[in-house]
Amino acid sequence: MKRAFVSPTVVKSPESYAPSRRFGDIRPYVLIARPDHWFKNAFMVLGVILAGFYHPESVGASTLAPILLALVGICLIASSNYVLNEILDAPTDLHHPVKRSRPIPAGQVKLPIAYLEWLVLGAIGTAILYSCNGPVLFAGLALWGMGLIYNVPPVRSKDLPYLDVLTESVNNPLRLLVGWFAVSQIDVPSVSLLISYWMLGAFLMATKRFAEYRSIADSPSAGRYRRSFKHYDENKLLSTMFFYTASTMIFLGFFIMRYHIELLLSTPLIAGFFAYYIRVGVRPDSPVQNPERLYRERGLMLYLALCLVTFFGLMFVEIPALYELFNIRPSGISPLWRL
What we know:
13 helices; Tetracycline Repressor, domain 2; single chain; about 60% helix; mainly alpha
């Protein structure tokens, strides 16, 4: 039996929310910047490691400052996007059983100050990225621009089925590029890896959508909360999760066969991660609705750590027998040691 959720009969515009507390309280303005979501910028770490692996001559003591500056700048750019998202999502958040308590729908934030916060965070983040180098700045501006595409009418891709997931998850390869360019500006990462990273983000977002849709458990209410849910159902969302899983592994396979076949040994673990994540995602009131709280899933976090250690460890290993088995030439990148 589906759980009924009774939504409000009247949807207010963001400008009409009455304050319920002192506007001098800064905490709501910190909350709408979502610093607890900054962990997502860990996706740039892969770019840092790959750039150091393929261009070791670019790595040195002087590399640390650009990496830290890029991390701070991208966190502020992301927070700018989060603030805009909170502002423009406020009317529909009223139809969500949990998000209706966010600071803006709850009347704890002055919208002019929130808009100023959006601009200031974006400006400071852009200035910091500018101090790194041009490619880092370009990737950061692309991330900020995707926030506009995702949130702002008339495009507002967040309301469009399938495009909502694809446009939000493109932030993953952009973060990878920020990490890469903070270390090296000689070239760009493999396109196959960037697409694989994009599809990985799409899988994570599609699983989140699936969990949200099931949690609301009422199609009309789900459609009022998120317009794209008017076109989705559980079967459609589940099928997209498998599509993004397959796409991630296919493009990762292209990258592995072309650049470092030893990584092939990590693919069973990576496939297992997808299966593990889906198992968590289909739970009632699944925690994947709030990725910032997934650290509480200790089993999933330990398994993810195992995947990462294995993947990055294999980058420093060469196994000649694999090249003979698959009849391909080594990429020419020297490993730290040879089996």
